[in-house]
Amino acid sequence: MSRKKPDIYEREKQGYWEAYHRSPSLKDRYPQVTDIRVEMKFKDTDGGSSPESKQEKYSQESKAFFKIVCPYAECISGGFDLSPAIDKLVASHLNKLDDTIICQGWQDEERRGKHHCFL
Ligand SMILES: [Zn+2]
């Protein structure tokens, strides 16, 4: 028998997709931008092995939705909201911006309210 995932993960996933669908397209949000490329490198602050780096590409037709799910599947209420960094990048008229974002989620359901993910 397969173990059913706790409902909290399902609810979070649903909230994520609802927010995604409500987002405008990149063209509507930043008409002057043709595309955005994001390169993410992860660092595990607990000294464990870090998740693999990841890339995302956004074209004009993409949703201007820049919340990245935490690569740790057990992480609760985590993830990385790139929106402030992208706002800053577009406003600055630079081509590139480096930023650090720390996951504020909880490590897993047992450690909810106790141990932050901090990836
Ligand atoms: Zn996390």
Task: Outline the secondary-structure elements.
Layout: H1 7-22, H2 26-29, E1 35-40, E2 54-59, E3 67-68, E4 80-81, H3 83-92
Antiparallel strand pairs: 1-2, 3-4
This protein binds zinc ion.
Zinc ion is lined by residues 70, 72, 75, 78, 103, 105, 117, 119.
Walk me through what this model shows.
- The chain is α+β, with helices and mostly antiparallel strands and 119 residues long.
- The protein has one domain (7-92).
- The chain has three helices and four strands; from the N terminus they run H-H-E-E-E-E-H.
- It has a two-stranded antiparallel sheet with strand order 1-2.
- The radius of gyration is 16 Å and the shape is globular.
- The structure holds zinc ion.
- The site of zinc ion has 8 residues, from loops.
- Zinc ion is lined by residues 70, 72, 75, 78, 103, 105, 117, 119.
**Estimated radius of gyration:** 16 Å
Q: Which structural class fits the helix and strand makeup?
A: alpha+beta
Q: Which ligands accompany this protein?
A: zinc ion
Give the count of helical stretches.
3
Name the strands of the widest sheet in spatial order.
1-2
**Helix amount, in percent?**
25-40%
Profile the largest sheet.
Answer: 2 strands, antiparallel
Q: What coarse outline follows from CA principal-axis ratios?
A: globular
**Quaternary structure:** single chain
Kindly list the characteristics that best describe this protein.
two-stranded antiparallel ribbon, about 120 residues, alpha+beta, binds zinc ion
